[in-house]
DNA sequence: ACTGCCGGGCA
DNA sequence: TGCCCGGCAGT
């Protein structure tokens, strides 16, 4: 019935359902592994995927359920098929044997990878962003986009998980932003709708154009159109939040012992998501940067995973960021004043490196004659300053 | 726009 | 050598 194949060059998953019995056959070939996994899932009519006690799959196939994509399986709906394909692909990307190999990875790292894998299709891996498309409105294609899309539904699940109370208002805001825009794939017979342009491009490139050639990258634009997501909202909007919620929760709380039945462990690292960690790590460091600059978080540079960053902080940090930033200046100044008080010149050159949160000492922090005395009292400047030379009184 | 200061000119 | 300033780069 439905055959979905990806030619991302990474994996090939094909899935088809067989008539009435609703059996679903999937084939997943890991990249370069050459090993195919064939699975036969029982998804009869009216069967909820998650309800299947299908060992490994169970966890992952609970996606759809938690996603709110209630799947009274309606074979006549191509859309549904695609959704299911998406689910399956997602699941497989997490369950593939390669994926599961290191289950005892560093939790956070693994989780992050999982995040990256789940939420980001960035990187060269050509991750299956497209299948999230119908499932999750925000394939959150790249790090930058992820940053931007903090108010996109992708994180909503996270919000809901992490801080429901605080999110009442942002939620409303986000609901609005949900209706911001969507992109519909114009490829004949596709019609997939994604909320992210990048995701859509990737979808087109991977699925339809079949590769990442430069040319096809440019061609993508022709195959999707922007649609007001009002139409799209007729479709159940909830899938994304809880879907990504799953992914993110496993991400967010390093010790998230999500209830059995939630997917957590198997989702850790996959060949598909292997490109993700770096980007996610970027996020990490970025937020780290934001978080620890002002607040002097104790982060041992050697153990980067330890930084007390948490998605909750991150996501809800938005309002704080500016405050933090502005505060960082004053901290710097305090530091400067403290250190420059006793021995001005000598200590200041001692590198104020404060771990990796260190800031380049801003120009504004250095007190030069001009700053100290002001232009009015120029006569009190050191001669160098008067001559527009390097200040001698307050050398760096 | 402001600041720090290099490079260069002038007496 | 002392003095001054144009102009660049960073904020």
UniProtKB/TrEMBL annotation:
PROSITE patterns: ZINC_FINGER_C2H2_1 (PS00028), ZINC_FINGER_C2H2_2 (PS50157). Its main location: nucleus. Keywords: DNA-binding, Metal-binding, Nucleus, Transcription, Transcription regulation, Zinc, Zinc-finger. One of its GO terms (molecular function) is zinc ion binding. Residues 183-213 form the C2H2-type domain. The keyword Transcription applies. GO terms for biological process: regulation of transcription by RNA polymerase II. Residues 211-277, 309-365 are annotated as: Disordered. Residues 309-352 have a biased composition (Polar residues). It comes from the Eukaryota. Residues 241-277 have a biased composition (Low complexity). This is Zinc finger protein 395b.
């Amino acid at each position: 019935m439905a055959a979905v194949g990806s030619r991302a060059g990474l994996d090939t998953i094909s899935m088809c359902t067989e008539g009435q019995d609703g059996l679903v056959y999937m084939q997943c070939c890991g990249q370069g592994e050459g090993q195919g996994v064939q699975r036969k899932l029982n998804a009869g009519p009216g069967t909820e995927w998650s309800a299947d006690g299908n060992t490994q799959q169970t966890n992952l196939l609970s996606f759809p359920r938690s996603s709110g994509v209630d799947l009274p399986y309606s074979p006549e709906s191509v859309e549904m098929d695609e959704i299911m394909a998406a689910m399956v692909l997602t699941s497989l990307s997490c369950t593939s044997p390669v994926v599961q190999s290191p289950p005892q990875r560093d939790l956070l790292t693994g989780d992050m990878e999982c995040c990256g894998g789940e939420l980001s299709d960035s990187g060269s891996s050509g991750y299956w962003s497209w299948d999230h498309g119908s499932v999750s409105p925000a394939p959150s294609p790249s790090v930058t986009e992820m940053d931007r899309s903090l108010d996109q539904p992708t994180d909503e699940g996270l919000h809901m998980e992490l801080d429901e109370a605080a999110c009442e208002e942002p939620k409303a805001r986000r609901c609005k932003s949900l209706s911001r825009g969507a992109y519909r794939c114009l490829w004949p017979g596709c019609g997939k709708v994604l909320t992210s342009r990048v995701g859509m491009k990737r979808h087109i490139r991977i699925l339809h154009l079949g590769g990442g050639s430069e040319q096809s990258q440019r061609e993508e634009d022709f195959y999707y159109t922007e649609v007001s997501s009002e139409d799209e909202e007729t479709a159940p909007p909830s899938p994304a939040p809880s879907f990504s919620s799953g992914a993110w929760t496993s991400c967010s709380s390093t010790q998230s012992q999500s209830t059995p039945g939630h997917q957590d462990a198997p989702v850790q690292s996959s060949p598909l998501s292997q490109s993700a960690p770096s980007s996610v790590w970027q996020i990490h460091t970025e937020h780290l940067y934001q978080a620890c600059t002002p607040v002097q978080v104790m982060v041992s540079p050697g153990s980067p995973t330890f930084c007390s960053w948490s998605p909750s902080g991150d996501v809800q940090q938005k309002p704080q960021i500016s405050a933090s930033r502005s505060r960082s200046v004053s901290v710097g100044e305090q530091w400067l004043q403290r250190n420059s008080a006793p021995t001005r010149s000598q200590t200041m050159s001692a590198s104020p490196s404060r771990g990796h949160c260190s800031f380049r000492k801003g120009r504004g922090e250095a007190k030069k004659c001009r700053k100290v005395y002001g232009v009015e009292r120029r006569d009190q400047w050191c001669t160098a300053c008067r001559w527009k030379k390097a200040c001698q009184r307050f050398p760096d």
